[in-house]
Each structure stands twice: as C-alpha cells, then as structure tokens.
C-alpha cells in the first residue's frame, strides 16, 4: 500500500508533535516514557521552591516537583506534588526537606528515609522539613559573638565609669589624704623604733647584771650537783619502798583469794557439797524435774477433785439424813474422757502451729465460747498419759468427762470407770 502525500505529512506532523511534547517535558525534568509515583507534601512556606525542582535521595536524583498549589481549606498552606520515577520503596516517616543545593540559594527537595517497616503508597502525604538558609545559619553563628561583644562593651563602660569616679576632685583629695596618713604612720614607726633603741641602751647594764646572776645560779647548781644527786637517790629509794610495800600487800591478798577460789572449785569438781552434787550428779536434776511435774499434776488434780484432799463432817443430832442420788446423776457405761487444751472467744484454726505435737484436735462450741479438746478416750489410764503430754505445752490443760457426748461430773465418771 502506497502512502499518499497527505498521509506522509500527517505522520510527520504527529512525530514532530510527539518530539515537541517529549522535549518540553524533558526540559521540565519529566520523562513521559517512564512510570512515576506521586506523593504530596504540605508546607507553610516553600522558600522559593518551583516546579521541576529536583528531588534527591542521598544525593541521587529520583524525581522532581511536578506542581505547587494552595490547600483547599484556605489555610494558606502550600501543597507540593512530588513525582518519583525510582522504584526504591519509601518507608513510613520519610520526610521531604527543602534545602539549598548551592551558595546561590538554588532549592532542592531532599528525602530523609523513615525507620518504619511499613511502606508508603502512591498519593500518600510525606512529612515535611525546611533547612535553614545561609543567612539564617550565619545569623545563628554570629549571634553568640554579638552577645559576647555586647557584654564586653558593658564591662568597658563600667570600667570607664569607675575610672571617671576615681579621677574626680574628691577622689583625688581622698587619695592625697591617704598618702599623708601613710607618711604619718611611717614617721610614728620610726619614732617607736628610736624609743625602743633608747630603752635598750638604758637597760643594758641591768640586762648584764641579770645575765651575771643567772650564770652564778647555774654555777651553784653545778657545784652542788653531788648533793642534788644524793637527794634524788633518797627520794627514789623512798618511792621504791612505798611501791614495793603496796605491791606485796596486794599480791598477798590476791594469792589468798585465788587459793580460796581454787578450794571451792575443787570441792565442786569432787561433788563435795550441795553445789558439787548439783553440778556432777544428773540424778539430782532429774529428781527436781520429776518433782516439778508431780507438783504440777497434783495442783491440777487438786483443782479438779478438791474433795479428795479436803473432807467435811456433819454432826448428827439424832436426826437421820438420807441422801439418794437423783436421776440426773445416773451414769451409764458409755463414758469418754477428753483433755481440754484451751478455750477462746474467737475460733482458732485446727491446723494452727500452737497445736503442734497433738495428734487430733476437736472444736466444741458452747454459746460464744470455743473449746478445743483432744480425741475422746474411754480408758482413764490412756487419757492420763495424753494429759501429761499435753500439759508440756499447755500447763493449764485439764480433764473432762462425757456421757453420750454430754459433759458429766469427772469424779463420778472416774468412779464408774474404775468399778
């Protein structure tokens, strides 16, 4: 198929238009033949940023600024549309920083990568940041120097003020007066030194006599040194005698005390006397311990059965007295004994450490009072053994008797059991 002249002209025009569009976009930094991802950034001030401004990442060009327009909320903020043609993923938190690329103030958008594991998608909004320009950086560097210079000028002003005060007529008069007083002081010191010199000259003879007298005294001491030595020897002998006399007496008393103590200890060691028997004979301690236990049991039994030890007699004046047991005192053979350990107004845990060493502990409640006893025992001999063991930890423990779980008189229960 042969193309007509008109078709050739149309194709040529299309090719020229395509090249023109591509060239214009190329000059603007766009590449229409490459895919791009668009991101947005919001700034209060873009600092002279223009479309086609380069977008770099670590110094590498990866995009350009496509468009800058005002935000639709009428806040005055500027929205910068950034086109990225590099496939490098941008993590969440990446910031678009407007910075100067040279000393002339040309702008560039630097991307500072975030540290998140999540990746930004197309049309997401980047964080923003504006780098200080050269003038601002210079001002920041000069500001401390300026402050120091101002302080230095203030100090110099203070020094000049003080100097001006010192150089006025009143200050000069004060300085002259001070110098005059110093001269007077020096004159007085010279007069005092002259007076001291005169006194020394006047007393030179007396000083010579005093030195001569001291020389005579030292000479006398030297001549009588033998007698002084004899006196010191006598004093030393006398003090030695006193010391020896006291020391001998003290040692004699001490020896006597040690001898008496040794005699006492030997008697104790040979079991001679009461103290020696107590130290050397273990049976005496055992007997004392057994006696203490027997007295304790006797007191408990005396409290429980006072009629065993105290008897009352009544005189019969011709009248016959007959005592018949009531029906309430009739006791069956179903009798048990318990040892009452303790009682309390509040309940006590049966697993309490205070009951350690007791096989079984029972809780009985009467009114508002709680009673804690051992297991019931029908044998009187066995319950006495239990009582003895319990009283080692609870000296106030005592026996109780029951008939069909009803408390009865202990004395009658014991008589019934022993029949």
Structure write-up:
About 50% of the residues lie in helices and about 20% in strands. By secondary structure, it is an alpha+beta fold. Among the domains are: about 1-35; about 35-130, Elongation Factor Tu (Ef-tu), domain 3, CATH 2.40.30; about 135-160; about 330-419, no CATH class. The chain has a seven-stranded mixed beta barrel with strand order 1-4-3-2-6-5-7. Strand 5 and strand 6 form a beta hairpin. Mean pLDDT is about 80; it is low at about 310-330.
CATH level-two architecture of the domain at 34-131: Beta Barrel
Count of distinct strands: 12
CATH topology value of the domain at 34-131 = Elongation Factor Tu (Ef-tu), domain 3
* Integer average pLDDT: 79
- Provide a count of the helices: 9
* Strand percentage: 15-25%
Characteristics of this structure?
419 residues, Elongation Factor Tu (Ef-tu), domain 3, alpha+beta, 5-stranded antiparallel β-sheet, 50% helix
How would you summarize the topology of this molecule?
Elements: H1 5-27, E1 37-43, E2 54-57, E3 60-70, E4 78-84, E5 95-100, E6 107-112, E7 125-130, H2 134-166, H3 169-202, H4 204-223, H5 225-269, H6 274-280, H7 282-304, E8 335-344, E9 362-366, E10 369-373, H8 380-393, E11 398-403, E12 406-408, H9 410-418
Parallel strand pairs: 1-7, 2-6, 5-7
Antiparallel strand pairs: 1-4, 2-3, 3-4, 5-6, 8-10, 8-11, 9-10, 11-12
Give me a quick take on this structure.
By secondary structure, the protein is an alpha+beta fold. It has 9 helices and 12 strands.
